[in-house]
From TrEMBL:
Gene3D superfamilies: PucR C-terminal helix-turn-helix domain (1.10.10.2840). Residues 444-500 form the PucR C-terminal helix-turn-helix domain. Signal peptide: none annotated. It comes from the Bacteria. This is PucR C-terminal helix-turn-helix domain-containing protein. It comes from Blautia hansenii. The lineage of its organism: Bacteria, Bacillati, Bacillota, Clostridia, Lachnospirales.
Amino acid sequence: MQLTSILLYQNLKEQFHIADYRLLSKNQPLARPFFFEADKGFKNNHIYLTDAILDLDVFSSIPEDAVLIICQKDETSHLPEGRFSCLLLSCHTSVIHVFNCIQSIFDYYEEWEGQLVSICHQNGSLSDLLEISQPVFKNPLCIMNMDFSLVAHRGLSQLPEEQQIFENHTLRLDYIHALIQDENFHLEDASPKPFLFPAYLTGHRSLNIRLFLDEKPAYQLSILENGTPLTDADWYLITILAHHAEYILHRMQSESSSRSTTLQSIFQSVLSDCTADYMGISHLLTNVGWLAEHTYLCSVIQTEGPSSLNGNTICQYIKNKFPASCSLVFKEYVVSFYNETLLKMEAEDIFRGLVYFIRDSMLKAGYSRSMCGHMNLRRQYLQGLTALTLGLEIRPQLWIHHFNQIALPYILRQSVKTFPGHMLCYEKLLDLQKSDKLQNTEYMKTLRVYLEHNLNTVQSAKALFIHRSTFLYRLERIKSILETDLEDPDELFYLNLSFRLLDNEEM
């Protein structure tokens, strides 16, 4: 690994006093050092050391891509004018010691790079890369998806509580919005170069670089300044780490793409083809390890609205959060299927895992019921879609809607598609309704309260704020009009349902 001139400077500054320096380029790559010999001159891209007093014409012969290091004891010396790169060290150690120190600097970074290469070639993980890199950067490191979900990290626990942007959901959302608005971050101008994010929000600066897959920004590597100030050298070192992180990400993508593509193809058929061969789909799912005895859940997330996240970003977030899941953009929704058995989760665990993401991203979601097997997968999608659309109609202020919460309103709406509620309800109930209008009675209200209190006369009378004898008189009149004794369970169920059918007709 070659050092850059700024990396050389930063490391030497930690060990020696630098009386003066000039660097034509901070990013000039440099090979291992030589001792300067006047009769041999300079080679390009190299470091040279000397403790001799040099004539001015020597400085004019230094190539612009070489760096000369002068070791001396006089702290008041300074460099002559000219276009050359040079470090003037004021130290009492020998030039040989400085030479050996520079060799050690090369050895240190070459060993680090060798470890990075070894991890990449031995199927290591992103976490492995960050673990061996944190001592190099001396600050916490993390790799995030473009939706800012953590993929790998090292040292985040060192951050003070008020700076825990990935643990504090409110702070994380503020950080996301601020970073998105930062002029260096705009995705349409995606650049592979590092960029600095200031400390005004989280209390620490971060040096960031995008990681690309298929020539598109897919992840972000960040150094979070905590205790050790970020240096110009970090701008070079983060590009080295990013290169190896991209290698692992491409390998991970290659390993998962076949299985993910297969799952997406299967579920695309489930969603788009209502006549699909479910026995064939079951066989295909079994081949990728999603078995008929497994339990599945479906979510449907609305992509249109105030959220700044697109469908593919939402899919990627869910994939990272729940490995045993499959998400795809279908029409204007993100539809996700979760294998609860492989995830070793129940539906409630999945709900909790997504609740902050849905809320903070200003999304709207509907969930199906959990079901076992492959035969109901399309029906689960329809359940999730119904939960979302009907839930938004009934309770638009909520972010999340569950099918269980809207099942009864759904049944009532389905039942009146052919006939209105007054044509489906208990026929004699209309006579009660007519009596209330013509004679100003309260028979409908009285019967409804009676049914709601499970035929308890005392509690019903209290709820209506009338005397028990008054209630019993009304009840006898109701039974007479309905021509029933209100004892048949089926009849009581029909009456309860009839009230809801009429309610639904009035909406």
